[in-house]
Amino acid sequence: MKKSLILAAIGIVVAAVAGLLILRGLQAENTVSAKEGVSAEAAAALQKKIDSIKAADKNTDRPPGESSVELSEIELESYVLFELKSEIPARMDSFDVQLEPGTVGAQTQLTFSADATGNPIIDAVVGGTHDLFVKGRLQGAAGRGKFDLEEIRVDGIPVPNILIAALFEKYVKPKYPEADLSQAFDLPWGIEEITVDQGKAKVVY
Question: Which residues contact 156 (CB under 8 A, 6 or more apart)?
Fold first, then answer.
C-alpha cells in the first residue's frame, strides 16, 4: 500500500487515484479519455522515467539524491489509462490529474456495478456512473512520504468519512493489512524527495 500511495500520487499507481486509495479490486472494461495529449507514447515516456529511478536504486555506488526527473500531468494521466487498466476499479470514461503546489488531485468518471461493496446501503450510493474527485496533500523528503487525504466528492457531494472507511476496509486492507493513510511511509526505489508544483511533480532520487 505504501508504494500504491506513491503510484496514486505520481502516476505509478495507480488505479485512478480514487481507485487505488479506496475502491481497489473491482474489474471492468476501461475506455480511454480523449483528452488531448493523453497517449500510449506519453505512458511509455513515464515508464522510461520509472525504469531509470529503479535502475539508479540498484547502483550501490551512486550517491542518493544525485538525479531528478519531472513528471507531467499528461504523463500521469496516460500511465493510468494505458498501463494500469487492471488496477482501475471500474469502467473509466475519463481521468484528469490536477497537480498544484503541494497537492495531488484526480477528477474521473467511473461506472461501478450495482453490488460493488456487497453492502446495500453503500451500494445505493456507489453503484452506477459517477463523477469522482479525490484530492490530498503529498509530501516527500529525506526518503519519507506522507499523503493526507483531504477531499473526496461524488457527483459534487462530499463523501462521508464512514463511507470512505468502509470502502478502504473492504478493498485496501485485505491486500495491505498495514495500510494506514494517516501514517508516513518510506518512499520506494531510493526516491529522496517529491515536490508537487503547478502542473508537474519533481522526483529527486
Answer: 131
